[in-house]
Amino acid sequence: MKLGVVTGVVWASKKVKELDGCRMYILQPVSVDGNKTDPPLVAADPKNIASGGDTVVYVTSTDAAQAFDSGFAPVNASIVALVDEIS
User: Fold this and answer.
1) Residue 42: DSSP 8-state
2) Pick from 36, 37, 49: which is nearest to 78 by CA?
3) Facing residues of 77 across strands?
4) Cβ distance 79 to 56 under 8 Å?
5) DSSP assigned state of 21
6) pTM for the complete prediction?
7) CATH topology of domain 2-82
């Protein structure tokens, strides 16, 4: 699991059926102290829990595809939790 900050929204006029109703965001990966760690990426939000400026936990690879209720979606990154506090 990795930390990221939602910095933007991706709008798609056509998506595969597994992504219907799923929001997609631009994430800036960050370390626990808030410093940028990698280039921004696009992540699916299968539970529609995030919004702009939120710090989130995201997963990549097979874990990202399995974050969907259907058990599969063609994605490389998915948001799985909101971060309330880092201590």
Assistant:
1) E
2) 49
3) 60
4) yes
5) T
6) 0.92
7) OB fold (Dihydrolipoamide Acetyltransferase, E2P) (2.40.50)
Give me the amino acid identity at 78: S
65 burial type by CB count under 10 A (0-12 exposed, 13-18 middle, 19+ buried): buried
Please state whether beta strands 2-10 and 77-82 pair in parallel, antiparallel, or not at all (unpaired).
Answer: unpaired
Cα–Cα distance, 36 to 28 (Å, whole number): 7
Q: What is the percent of the chain where pLDDT is above 70?
A: 100
Kind plus residue range of the DSSP H or E element containing 63: helix 62-65
Distance CA 1, CA 63 (A): 9
Reported confidence tier of residue 13, pLDDT bands at 50, 70, 90: confident
Compute the average pLDDT of residues 63-82. Answer: 93
